[in-house]
Amino acid sequence: MKRSIEKIVKHAEVSEKAIEQYLTDSVKKLGGICLKYNNPGMVGFPDRVCLLPGGVTLWVELKSKGQQLRTMQRIRISQMLHLGHTVTVCKSKEDIDRMLEPYKTSRP
Hints:
The protein has 4 helices and 4 strands, in the order ααβββαβα.
């Protein structure tokens, strides 16, 4: 029973929902806004758009540990990168910290 509870708690820490909340909170601490992106007419776009001070826009696709990008997500991310957008796939809180690190030091 104890092992089962530990497994549930560990999953809650690495779930996509937990990672998404951590992203939202981290962007807010930097003075930014983290918007959920949904375009029903076009699939495959990243989950979140982060608007940071200084006009910085980051697109973020969130995945739970072990999940992989779907084919359409890979295509969209490739298109966006080709257009010069910053797109990051984050599978952990550490990935989010690494992505946001450059913007912590440049904050006014």
